[in-house]
Specification:
Helix content: 25-40%
Order of helices and strands: HEHEHEHEHEHEEHEHEHHH
CATH topology of the largest domain: Rossmann fold
CATH class of the largest domain: Alpha Beta
Strand order of the largest sheet: 7-6-5-8-9
Radius of gyration: 19 Å
Number of helices: 11
Shape: globular
Number of domains: 2
Strand content: 5-15%
CATH superfamily of the largest domain: Aspartate/ornithine carbamoyltransferase
Distance between the termini: 20 Å
CATH architecture of the largest domain: 3-Layer(aba) Sandwich
Structural class: alpha/beta
Length: 315
């Protein structure tokens, strides 16, 4: 299929075919990234503005790297270096960026719905790099792409997402994508952070760690999202770790071949011990690497790139 969307606002609106189209393009770019010359001229002459109004390391660097590998000019604007500190609105900032002839905006913002709002007031493509606790579509894409490198298909695979589900945009985007791709998803953690209401999204809700890990093909760990919580949802980090942290002893509850994932940043010794985070079953660094190829695919497709043209350049 050919991609027809101007923006990538979330996973929820996408069809399975659209998700798989992104993976097809990402696979082509990953082959290119394995060459001695890792750049392609696909976006030469284009200017991409990364408007990051919330802290980020991996996502910001991956978008910068992806745009650079596509030969685009990249400008990154952080909150403390923008006119937001002077009271300028998102709308005015975006319109000024467009007036400077930018060709795309990659937005990270603390407000849910901010990327969709922006996409409706500017003519250039808008890519959601995380909007509050709503969605983080490119993280889910790279997570699922990484899984597919280990499994031929996610159909029937059992994926457990463990941790702060309530405030996690990563969890929501992964639930949308994994269920579209046929996986069976379990969300687990304290009842205060994993309410039964998530069952309406087609997932299983579990509050017992051993049960959550027992038959999982993949376990995705999430950190506690303190910055999005307005009240305390469990007594202490120590209590969370004692109940839901993954250590060497609890890893024995997993299948021997089960993958361990984490979108980062990792709080070592809280949701996972360092020994497991750095173990052979961990694919955390693979996720980081795949974040470049999947984001290259999104930038390429949303600027009008065709899959057939990519196939020719990848040969």
């Amino acid at each position: 299929m050919e991609w027809t969307r101007k923006d990538l606002i979330g996973i929820e609106p996408l069809s399975r075919e659209e998700i798989e189209a992104i993976f097809t393009v990402a696979s082509g770019f990953k082959r290119i990234l394995g060459r001695s010359v890792k750049k392609v001229p696909a976006l030469r002459g284009k200017t991409i503005v990364n408007l990051f109004l919330e802290p980020s390391t991996r996502t910001k660097l991956a978008f910068e790297m992806a745009a650079s590998r596509l030969s685009a000019d990249v400008i990154t604007v952080n909150a403390d270096a923008s006119s937001f500190v002077k009271g300028e609105t998102l709308k005015d900032t975006a319109r000024n960026i467009c007036a400077l002839n930018a060709d795309m905006i990659v937005l990270r913002h603390s407000a849910p719905g901010s990327a969709k709002y922006l996409s409706e007031i500017v003519d250039v493509p808008v890519i959601n790099a995380g909007d509050g606790s709503h969605e983080h579509p490119t993280q889910a894409l790279l997570d699922n792409f990484t899984m597919l490198e280990h499994f031929d298909s996610l159909e029937g695979k059992k994926v457990t997402i463990l941790g702060d589900i309530l405030f996690s945009r990563v969890a929501r985007s992964n639930i949308f994508s994994l269920t579209k791709l046929g996986a069976e998803v379990t969300v687990a953690g304290p009842a205060t952070l994993v309410p039964k209401t998530f069952e309406s999204m087609g997932v299983k809700v579990v509050h017992d760690l051993k049960t959550a890990l027992a038959d999982a093909d993949v376990v995705m760990l999430l950190r506690i999202q303190h910055e999005r919580q307005s009240s305390t949802h469990f007594p202490s980090l120590g209590e969370y770790t004692s109940m839901f942290g993954i250590n060497k002893a609890r890893a024995k509850w997993l299948k021997p071949e089960a993958l361990i994932m984490h979108p980062g940043p990792i709080n070592r010794g809280v949701e996972i011990d360092s020994e497991l985070a750095d173990s052979d079953r961990s694919v955390i660094l693979e996720q980081v690497t795949n974040g470049i190829a999947t984001r290259m695919a999104v930038l390429y497709l949303c600027t009008g790139g065709s899959m057939s043209a990519l196939e020719n350049s990848a040969e």
